[in-house]
Each structure stands twice: as C-alpha cells, then as structure tokens.
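Figure 6 in text form: structure in, sequence out.
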C-alpha cells in the first residue's frame, strides 16, 4: 500500500485547492489540496506534505503550524490502495501559483466545489473543514472510481 499526503490550507475564510493537471496517478482534472506519494527523501509524512505543497503550489508551509488531522485508507476493489495523511495549515509564505502539477484556486468555505472533486471527498471534507480529527476507510470499486462507502474511527496518529 502506498503512502501519501494531502494538505488543506485555509486563509481568510477560504480554502486553497488546485486543479490537477499533467498526468497524476489519481484524479486528473479534479480539484483537491496539494499532496502526493511519500518519496525516499521524505523522513516523515509531514516532510512529504511540505515538499508536495512546495512542488505543486509553489508556497512554503509553516512547519510548526501544519497539523495532521486525519489518516484515511482508500480501498479499491476491497484491497487497501493508498494511506493518505491529511494536514491542515493556515500559515505559509509565498503566493500560490500555477505549476506543472496544479492550478491554484481559492474557494469560500461555504462554497466548496465538491462536484469537481473525487467522489468520496464530499463525505469527509466537511468534517476536516469543521476541524474534526479522525481516521477513516474509504471504499471504491476501483481506484478512485465507484464510491461505495466510508467508515470513521477515532483519530490515531502514526507515521
């Protein structure tokens, strides 16, 4: 099972998302927070989140204020496929800009574009935006397609 990170960045009542472009493994053309697979250079999942945000939106998150809020295991056809560590941040330096991976978009917290996100996102993103912490299993028929359900659990952190 692959490990990945995803960052939820909120500033002034708005959520920073990016439209995925290029050839991502999951979700081409959808919008989501910056994130991606853990690489050998990443000592921790937080390092992965910071690197991915830098690469995808050209901003530098404040490490001390970037907090893990969820760990979600995504299943495809009954088998675990990705374990994604979600982080929440509200401090960063630089201005988000388009990269090869993403085109930045700011969205008011009351108007999140769930119809442009992956199918399962509308089932857990509102909880993340409300400040909840949790672990979850998300079930798809195949990788990121055919949402079947979600199970929520108390938050237990591990790296």
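Output sequence:
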């Amino acid at each position: 099972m692959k490990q990945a990170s995803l960052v939820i960045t909120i500033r002034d009542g708005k959520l920073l998302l990016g439209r995925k472009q290029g050839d991502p493994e999951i979700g081409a053309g959808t919008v989501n927070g910056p994130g991606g697979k853990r690489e050998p250079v990443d000592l921790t999942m937080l390092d992965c989140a910071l690197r991915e945000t830098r690469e995808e939106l050209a901003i530098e998150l404040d490490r001390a204020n970037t907090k893990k809020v969820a760990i979600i295991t995504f299943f495809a056809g009954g088998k675990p496929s990705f374990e994604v560590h979600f982080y929440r941040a509200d401090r960063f330096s630089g201005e988000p800009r388009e990269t090869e991976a993403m085109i930045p978009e700011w969205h008011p917290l009351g108007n999140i574009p769930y119809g442009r996100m992956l199918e399962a996102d509308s089932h857990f993103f509102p909880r993340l935006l409300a400040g909840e912490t949790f672990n979850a299993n998300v079930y798809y028929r195949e990788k990121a397609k055919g949402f079947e359900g979600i199970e929520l659990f108390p938050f237990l952190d591990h790296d």
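Caption detail: DSSP finds two helices and eleven strands in the chain.
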